[in-house]
Every structure is written in structure tokens, then in C-alpha cells.
């Protein structure tokens, strides 16, 4: 059974979430594709098979997704949107890394019945070379959501050292948390995310994120 969500005393606990409502065509295609990928293999499953199983045309499939590999990034992209929206609403008195930690945890709460699907998705993303090759633009968007927030809060431009360092370090930490959670299957995902981001925050305290370092 997943552990209780992690949070500060008095901190609102996010409601379990899904990236898209179950009734949408995009979500239906996503569920069917994931099932077929798991049963048959990613490379063995065709767009025509996914469309046929969903009762739609090939043209309809490409109305929602540019490629077969994009189906498995649907939930991830929704997570990016959620993180961006949550960071836009953070009060200025919340430290940068605490704000990032809260947003990431809020975007990664899932219902218990959704966890098996999430694990299957993550396993495919980490083991299929074509999916790994398509990851760059999705990870860039996730990273950019954090970079933009840090730049705004510190008054620096987005390509300054500290916004870039925080964004990339947070993404790396979250990917490590996902991998350990997926491999061990022994706790709520947020337990790993929370532990990793708290450790990271110790090195990116607000007083450190001041100005751009000067070269010698």
C-alpha cells in the first residue's frame, strides 16, 4: 500500500491527479497504447493497431499525437504544465527550493489504482531506446519550468548559472527518485522525491542563489 503523502505540518495535501480526464480521446489512446506496448512490445505495436483497438482512424490518432512514441509522454507533459502552474502561484516568502519541492510533490500524487500503469509507463520509457531518444524535448520543458521560476524569483535571466544549475539538478534528482521507486516498488513515489529534493535543497539555499559568480 502506498505510504501517506509527505508534507509539512499545516501544508495542504494535494489531491490525487491524472494528467487528462479519462473520457478524452487522447487519454483513451494512451491507455490502449500502453496496454498493447506491454502485451506485444513497443516496436511490435503499430499505430494502426492502437487506432483500431480504440475504434478510431489512423488520422484521428495523428490528430492527438505526432508519433507513436509521443503517447507515453502524455502524462509527463501534463506534469510539466502542473508544475509550471503551481510555481506561478507560489508566495514570495516561500524559499525557492521549498517551492520547487512542494510543486513537484503536488504534481506527482497518484491514486493507488493508477500506480501499476505509472510503473509500466516508466519501465517502457527507461528500456526502449526509441523512447529514450525522444526524451530530450520533454525533459527540456520540465527543466525549463523550474529554470523560469528560479530566474523570476532571483531576478536573473534564465540562462544565468543559478537558474540553470537548479533546473538541471532538480530534474536529475527527480529522475533518480523515479528510477529508485520504480525498481524497489516499496513506497509512494513522493517519499523518494521528497527525500531527494530535501537533500538537494541543502545545497541551494536562498542565500547561495545571489548574483552571478565573477570570473577571476
From TrEMBL:
<feature type="domain" description="HTH tetR-type">
    <location>
        <begin position="23"/>
        <end position="83"/>
    </location>
</feature>
<dbReference type="InterPro" id="IPR023851">
    <property type="entry name" value="Tscrpt_reg_TetR-type"/>
</dbReference>
<feature type="region of interest" description="Disordered">
    <location>
        <begin position="1"/>
        <end position="25"/>
    </location>
</feature>
<dbReference type="GO" id="GO:0000976">
    <property type="term" value="F:transcription cis-regulatory region binding"/>
</dbReference>
<dbReference type="Pfam" id="PF17754">
    <property type="entry name" value="TetR_C_14"/>
</dbReference>
<protein>
    <submittedName>
        <fullName>Mycofactocin system transcriptional regulator</fullName>
    </submittedName>
</protein>
<dbReference type="InterPro" id="IPR050109">
    <property type="entry name" value="HTH-type_TetR-like_transc_reg"/>
</dbReference>
<dbReference type="InterPro" id="IPR001647">
    <property type="entry name" value="HTH_TetR"/>
</dbReference>
<dbReference type="InterPro" id="IPR009057">
    <property type="entry name" value="Homeodomain-like_sf"/>
</dbReference>
<keyword id="KW-0804">Transcription</keyword>
<feature type="DNA-binding region" description="H-T-H motif">
    <location>
        <begin position="46"/>
        <end position="65"/>
    </location>
</feature>
<dbReference type="Pfam" id="PF00440">
    <property type="entry name" value="TetR_N"/>
</dbReference>
<keyword id="KW-0238">DNA-binding</keyword>
<dbReference type="InterPro" id="IPR041347">
    <property type="entry name" value="MftR_C"/>
</dbReference>
<dbReference type="GO" id="GO:0003700">
    <property type="term" value="F:DNA-binding transcription factor activity"/>
</dbReference>
<keyword id="KW-0805">Transcription regulation</keyword>
